[in-house]
């Protein structure tokens, strides 16, 4: 009975999300404006009149824009969209639309590809209500799409004088206290205590993830903004897997908001999360209830307090058996004090409890200056 009720609740939630999307599309695309299959090239963004001229925003590497996923949802795959960001992007760059996805939390993620000399670069933009977040990867660097105080903008971190915080020494992984754990004579699935890893669509292995996010993240982004951001990070991770030919997909099975300070270092936060210390005392029970293979804590980036962009247990270290007790990660997200964390930090930290390191399996195209992959980063901005 409980399983049937849960399936009905999921069906009802997805139906409501679908109706919401239909309302957005109907409102954003008046009848007769552009017909499905039209070859007309649309602009990716709408540029507010206040930022048409030489606005101070663009001189700081930021240009105010408006993005409306509903306006672009009628496009068929293969349609071209103009990347129009005056002051930041020269005319002529176009993104090929690939698909759009709807999350259970009501977000729409718009996915496309921008090619440079035959090399594909990903565009992934997520919208929840008026909150928009995303990344536009280009040969010259990644643009960030952000929403702050109700205003949407595109940011060029390099032009804005921001530096990525990239760990190149492996300090983002903690070694489990393996000898202290009982029952390690045989290998244990990292999903033990949660749900077993299951085969998903197209033969993918589905990793069920529970996301713990903080009140500080909601204070910074707003409720819709926080959910848009989390949906974006999951969508970006899954796109990296798909583009790499890795038969893995993340499934966001549960989210919970907690009040946990941002000034605590990431290693300390990982210990608190793993030990179910206050305020994480219900996390293990929630993990079991929702069958989560992995748990990740997402906090707004605070530099230099957090010391890194994330940390996680290096499960399976030195060929030791993996254990569910080490299926925990912590990640920092956003910009702070002139530094920022790459959007791919999320999947990077989730990969560590699987045993992925800089010498293990690699996934996805990384963001500059991380010029290898999202699971194995080498900072080429500094001499080796």
Alpha-carbon distance between the termini?
60 Å
Adjacency order of strands in the biggest sheet: 1-3-4-5-6-7-8-9-2
Give the helix/strand class.
alpha/beta
Give me the count of strands: 19
Largest sheet: 9 strands, mixed
**What spatial form do the alpha-carbon principal axes imply?**
globular
N-to-C series of helices and strands: HEHEHEEEEEEEEEEEHHEHHEEEEEH
Mean pLDDT: 80
Multimer state:
single chain
Give the fraction of residues assigned to helices: 10-25%
Rg measurement, Å: 21 Å
How large is the share of residues in beta strands?
25-35%
Unreliable runs: 15-38, 180-201, 359-372, 376-384
Give the helix tally: 8
Quick summary:
With 384 residues, the protein is of the alpha/beta class.
Characterise this structure:
42% of the residues are buried. Residues 15-38, 180-201, 359-372 and 376-384 have low confidence and may be disordered. α4 (215-221) packs across α5 (223-243). By secondary structure, this protein is α/β, with parallel strands linked by helices. The chain is built from 8 helices and 19 strands. It is globular, with a radius of gyration of 21 Å. The strands form 3 sheets. It has a 9-stranded mixed sheet with strand order 1-3-4-5-6-7-8-9-2. The chain has helices at residues 2-28, 56-59, 69-72, 215-221, 223-243, 266-274, 283-290, 345-351, and strands at 42-43, 62-65, 80-82, 94-102, 108-116, 119-128, 131-138, 141-148, 151-155, 163-164, 173-174, 198-199, 205-214, 248-258, 294-300, 310-313, 328-333, 335-336, 339-340.
């Amino acid at each position: 009975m409980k399983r049937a009720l849960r399936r009905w609740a999921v069906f009802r939630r997805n139906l409501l999300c679908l109706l919401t999307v239909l309302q957005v599309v109907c409102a954003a695309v008046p009848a007769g404006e552009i017909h499905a299959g039209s070859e007309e090239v649309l602009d990716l963004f709408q540029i507010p009149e206040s930022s048409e001229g030489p606005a101070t925003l663009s001189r700081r590497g930021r240009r105010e824009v408006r993005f409306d996923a509903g306006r672009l949802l009628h496009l068929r795959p293969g349609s071209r969209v103009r990347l129009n960001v005056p002051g930041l992007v020269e005319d002529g760059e176009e993104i090929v639309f690939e698909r759009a996805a709807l999350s259970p939390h009501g977000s729409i993620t718009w996915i496309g590809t921008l090619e440079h000399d035959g090399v594909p670069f990903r565009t992934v933009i997520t919208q929840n209500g008026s909150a928009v977040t995303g990344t536009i990867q280009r040969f010259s660097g990644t643009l960030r799409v952000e929403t702050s105080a109700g205003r949407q903008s595109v940011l060029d971190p390099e032009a804005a004088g921001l530096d990525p915080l990239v760990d190149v020494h492996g300090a983002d992984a903690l070694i489990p206290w393996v000898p202290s754990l009982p029952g390690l004579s045989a290998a244990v699935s990292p999903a033990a205590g949660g749900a077993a890893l299951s085969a998903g669509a197209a033969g993918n292995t589905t990793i069920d993830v529970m996301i713990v996010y903080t009140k500080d993240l909601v204070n910074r982004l707003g409720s819709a903004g926080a959910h848009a951001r989390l949906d974006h990070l999951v969508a970006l991770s899954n796109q990296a897997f798909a583009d790499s030919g890795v038969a893995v997909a993340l499934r966001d099975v549960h989210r919970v908001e907690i009040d946990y300070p941002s000034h605590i270092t990431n290693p300390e936060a990982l210990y608190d999360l793993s030990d179910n210390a206050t305020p994480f005392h219900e996390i293990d029970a929630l993990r079991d209830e929702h069958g989560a293979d992995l748990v990740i804590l997402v906090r707004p980036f605070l530099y230099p307090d957090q010391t890194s962009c994330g940390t996680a247990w290096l499960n399976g270290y030195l060929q030791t058996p993996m254990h569910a007790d080490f299926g925990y990660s912590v990640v920092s997200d956003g910009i702070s004090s002139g530094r920022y964390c790459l959007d791919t930090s999320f999947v990077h930290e989730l990969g560590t409890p699987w045993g992925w390191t800089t010498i293990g399996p690699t996934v996805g195209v990384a963001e500059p200056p991380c010029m290898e992959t999202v699971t194995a980063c080498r900072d080429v901005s500094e001499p080796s």
